[in-house]
């Protein structure tokens, strides 16, 4: 059997250390674990932090747009946003012109948390130990991988 790129199926090993998916999984777990103590200080989980990143960039966003940005379904996103609202960081409001659409906005407390979170990217970047060029190259490769894998099937 030949793959789309001309490789034979035999060229792909079943050894764990040869699996790109395992390298991605292990890296994801390690990076997420490095975030945990930093985010604990902010009172956020990693998925909540991602929602806050979108809101810190845009201040007020529909749940649908947050889901698109984070590649998450609303069924996954809604509980995250409810917990952020309970914590006093965001407000949810149904749009008057479309009751099905919910807009999420930062509260003053949510805006002020941004200043406390400014150290997080630097701490994670330092932990990764990549040069700026390696950092950009890694993001580019991972985005390409996501695009390619998402369109297959």
TrEMBL record:
Subcellular location as annotated: Cytoplasm
GO molecular function, one term: DNA-binding transcription factor activity
Domain HTH marR-type: 17-147
Keywords: Cytoplasm, DNA-binding, Transcription, Transcription regulation
Transcription regulation is among the record's keywords: yes
GO cellular component, one term: cytoplasm
InterPro entries per the UniProt record, alphabetical: HTH_MarR-typ, MarR/SlyA-like, Transc_reg_Sar_Rot_HTH, WH-like_DNA-bd_sf, WH_DNA-bd_sf
Gene3D superfamilies: Winged helix-like DNA-binding domain superfamily/Winged helix DNA-binding domain (1.10.10.10)
Coiled-coil stretches: none
GO biological process: response to stress
Predominant localisation class: cytoplasm
PANTHER family: ORGANIC HYDROPEROXIDE RESISTANCE TRANSCRIPTIONAL REGULATOR, TRANSCRIPTIONAL REGULATOR, MARR FAMILY
Protein name: MarR family transcriptional regulator
Species annotation: Streptomyces minutiscleroticus
């Amino acid at each position: 059997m030949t793959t789309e790129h001309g490789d034979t199926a035999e060229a792909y090993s079943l050894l764990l250390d040869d699996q790109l998916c395992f390298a991605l999984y292990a890296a994801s777990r390690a990076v997420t674990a490095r975030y945990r103590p930093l985010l604990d200080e902010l009172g956020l989980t990693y998925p909540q932090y991602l929602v806050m990143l979108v809101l810190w960039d845009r201040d007020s966003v529909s749940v649908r747009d947050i889901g698109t940005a984070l590649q998450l379904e609303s069924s996954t996103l809604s509980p995250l946003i409810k917990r952020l609202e309970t914590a006093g960081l965001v407000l949810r409001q149904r749009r008057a012109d479309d009751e099905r659409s919910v807009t999420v906005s930062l509260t003053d407390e949510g805006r002020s948390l941004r200043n406390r979170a400014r150290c997080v990217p630097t701490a994670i970047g330092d932990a990764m130990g990549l040069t700026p060029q390696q950092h950009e190259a890694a993001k580019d490769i991972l985005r390409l991988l996501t695009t390619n894998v998402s369109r297959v099937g």
